[in-house]
Amino acid sequence: MSRERGVYFGPRLRRLRRELGITQAEMASDLAISPSYVALMERNTRPVTAEMLLRIARTYRLALDDLAPDDRDDHQARLGAVLRDPIFADCDVDPLEATDVVANFPGIADALLRLHAAYRASESVLADHRAGEGGSEDAATRDPSVEARAFIAAHRNHFARLDAACEALAGEIGEGGIGADRIERRLAERHNIRVRALPASVMIDSARRFDRHHDQLLIDDTLDAPSRAFQLAIQLAYLECDADIADAMAGAALSSDNARALVRRALASYAAAAILMPYGAFAEAADKARYDIDVLARRFGTSFEQSAHRLTTLQRPGREGVPFFFVRIDPAGNVSKRLDGAGFPFARHGGSCPLWSIHDAFRDAGRIVTQWLELPDGQRFFSIARTVTSGGGTYGAPRMTRAIALCCAHDHAAKLVYADGENAEPTPIGVTCRLCQRPACIARAAPPIGRTLLADDYRRSTAPFTMSEG
């Protein structure tokens, strides 16, 4: 009696479940199977049969092509990238051997990928400790910003149910994208809340303040149109999407009230963007405009940064956009926002590589700077960088200029209008000097971990540090 054959695509199934925002138990209930069987499929201990693939596709209304891309290719590419790590430089691993491991022993391949990820995480912790940033990791000393960022990253900056709820809300208010006027009308008709624009001197350092006692929403009258609409949308999200925000936070292992407050604020901002730029309309417009951010900003009445940020959230199963990495820095290199949907290994410690053109954006404010990047392991990315400003609004008011960058893997760059005619050689960069093994980099600020420095009694190299080859 022949057994029904299946395929192993545990990581893809796990990603699908997380994108849908459901637990293993909920998926098991949807598919009429046991939670343990879902767990076995996600761990690649059990194959996913053709009948189960069809059941998943019908249950979640997905096309089979979207549901089951060849995860073997994904694992093979990831394992190949791992084996290009400098730590394996003296290991003679034939590419065919890696292919055989992925094809015949998917569990072992997954274990190797997890082990390498743990090694890189430990290496990062060591780098933090060497930089004087280490310390106790108990609940009292955890950085709430790091926790909040980790929570968003774990969901790949996409919250399916919250996004769908906001899209439905936007549809009730207006078709294809809404502005401040429609939100203001919604607040008045549904919640009996009046919006008042007041001078900054009256607002006392507040852009938005909800006066519950008088049922009025007070807005700084110096805000530009995109900022005003965004603040109105945030208040609407708190009023009508509060349950969806709470649901998105359910089960989050956050150690402090500060971390929970930061996550709640991030989800409210996510909801506001989803109201102003509804998923379906925004994703369609992004495709048509080939991700021209200025075009999208004008189409939806949003700012350049708001539109760029929204592009990082387009991860809906079956309707994914280009996966982007997003970062925002100030002129000193401090990172104030970071979102990763493209697998860009930007370390949480230290500053970004000085060879990355995001730093050049400050020299020509408002102009988009593009660049091809190559990491030490051979991965290539395409980068878009530009300055954005906040504050101001009145003469003499403080204004802050920051630079933001969007990066995508080279495979997706052709979908971007910015990559047309960009055929320059990629710039070799590192995640951070402590983790970059390129010995001849003249921009290096610190020696890499695990390398022995050579004395310069008889020879001084052009690079800041000379390292042994062993």
Task: Show the helix and strand layout.
Blueprint: E1 6-7, H1 10-20, H2 24-31, H3 35-42, E2 48-49, H4 50-60, H5 64-67, H6 71-83, H7 95-104, H8 106-130, H9 144-154, H10 160-173, H11 180-191, E3 194-198, H12 200-203, E4 208-211, E5 216-220, H13 225-240, H14 242-249, H15 257-276, H16 279-288, H17 293-300, H18 304-311, E6 325-329, E7 335-340, E8 369-374, E9 380-391, E10 399-409, E11 427-428
Parallel strand pairs: 3-5, 8-11
Antiparallel strand pairs: 1-2, 4-5, 6-7, 6-10, 8-9, 9-10
Helix pairs in contact: 2-3, 6-7, 6-8, 7-8, 9-15, 10-15, 11-13, 13-15, 14-15, 17-18
Organism: Flavisphingopyxis soli
Domain HTH cro/C1-type: 13-67
InterPro entries: Cro/C1-type_HTH, HTH_RamB, IrrE_HExxH, Lambda_DNA-bd_dom_sf, ScfR_C, TransReg_Diox_bact_type
Description:
The chain is α+β, with helices and mostly antiparallel strands and 470 residues long. The protein has 3 domains: 6-69, Orthogonal Bundle (434 Repressor (Amino-terminal Domain)), CATH 1.10.260.40; 145-312, no CATH class; 322-470, no CATH class. It has helices at 10-20, 24-31, 35-42, 50-60, 64-67, 71-83, 95-104, 106-130, 144-154, 160-173, 180-191, 200-203, 225-240, 242-249, 257-276, 279-288, 293-300, 304-311; strands at 6-7, 48-49, 194-198, 208-211, 216-220, 325-329, 335-340, 369-374, 380-391, 399-409, 427-428. A 6-stranded mixed sheet has the order 7-6-10-9-8-11. A 3-stranded mixed sheet has the order 3-5-4. Strand 4 and strand 5 form a beta hairpin. Helix 2 crosses helix 3, helix 6 (71-83) crosses helix 7 and helix 11 (180-191) runs parallel beside helix 13. The longest helix is centred in the N-terminal third of the chain and has 25 residues, at 106-130. Residues 130-136 have low confidence and may be disordered.
